[in-house]
Amino acid sequence: MKDFAEFLGWITVISYAIALFNYIFKYINRNYLKKFTNKKAAGMYKFIMKYVVKYHKLVGIIAVIALTAHFIIMYTLKGLLITGLIAMILMFSVVLLGIYGTYINKKLKAPWLKIHKILAFTLIVAIIVHIL
Fold first, then answer.
1. Angstrom distance (rounded) from CA 78 to CA 9
2. Domain limits at 122?
3. What percent of the chain is predicted at pLDDT more than 90?
4. Which of 13, 24, 67, 108 stands 20 to 30 A from 6 (CA)?
5. Alpha-carbon dihedral 70, 71, 74, 78, rounded to 10 degrees
6. Distance of alpha carbon 96 from alpha carbon 43, whole angstroms
7. How many domains does the chain have?
8. pLDDT (0 to 100) of residue 30
């Protein structure tokens, strides 16, 4: 059962990383894509970016589902690890802000988006600390 819980933990990390690519791809698109001299590479980049953006929410949902299952199994086996709890709270906060921004406050210049991004990058540190 512990192996399955670890597998779910890695599914969480991989799904989260894919969701994080949404920001990275958009940042590169906004700041550097105009400087691409190779049109074929720029076209391929936009093609990949389209799918990253399209599936951002789905991989975020997969990450939360895998995280929840990972937490339940690991809590049952080992008890509460504070590093895991912090990472889980951060991830749920990121998701809740994403839901808030998607369905309630749809303004992309609103403070929720900045907080969403800051928490998402803070979560990277929390995950690394938890894994170590």
1. 14
2. 2-131
3. 51
4. 24
5. 160
6. 33
7. 1
8. 84
